[in-house]
Amino acid sequence: MRSLLHDVDAPAVDALLTAVDQVMNSNTLLLRARADELITSGNRLATLEAFVNGPLFPDMMRAADHARHWDNLQSGPLVPRVTNLRLTGLDGAGFHARLSWMLCTAFSPYQRHLDVADADVIIDDFLAWLDHDRPATDDEGWSCWSVHPDFLYLTGYYTDQPPQSDAAYFDAGPNDTATYLHRGNTLMLLLTNGSP
Questions:
Q1: Would 171 be classed as within a structural domain?
Q2: What is the model's pTM?
Q3: Per the structure, how many domains does the chain have?
Q4: H runs (alpha helix) in the chain
Q5: Residue 92 neighbours by CB distance under 10 Å
Q6: Are 39 and 182 in contact (CB under 8 A)?
Q7: 171 pLDDT higher than 70
Q8: Is a pLDDT exceeding 80 seen at residue 124?
Q9: Is residue 7 a part of any domain in this protein?
Q10: Does residue 139 sit within a domain?
């Protein structure tokens, strides 16, 4: 597994992440990596689990956190244990709907929802960026999956408990999401949290 975090340094990505940050009061992160083999229906879960449980993941999380100027993830552990992830399929329309939910409908503590037209511009630009390097022979595009957001330490905000780690990410609230995309041997993980 190799980091491709430099690839997400793009205006369309920044526009989406910044908009989600503002609407959901999130510390939104997008990770991109290259696996050692093609990601298929037979190994998609194992590939993501190997990534999340491997040594590259915390390095990329901290690098992304720093690049977004949050610097919230300190030196503690991010993943509580060897984690078994749970996936639910999203088709292209479902992925678009999830992004639209983030910008127009999700819990927004400071009432910063975007109108649908403005959200669509941001989403369309992001989706165009996703496909900017799509091989001409690729008929399938990105495979999109919702990941149950229970695989990172909790901040304790919604549980009235102390943070489980100084690198806690999820809040156990309504804005915790994890979205897994893969195509060829490339994977991406879009993460959101958010609390008032």
A1: yes
A2: 0.96
A3: 1
A4: 11-24, 44-53, 56-67, 92-104, 116-130
A5: 12
A6: yes
A7: yes
A8: yes
A9: yes
A10: no
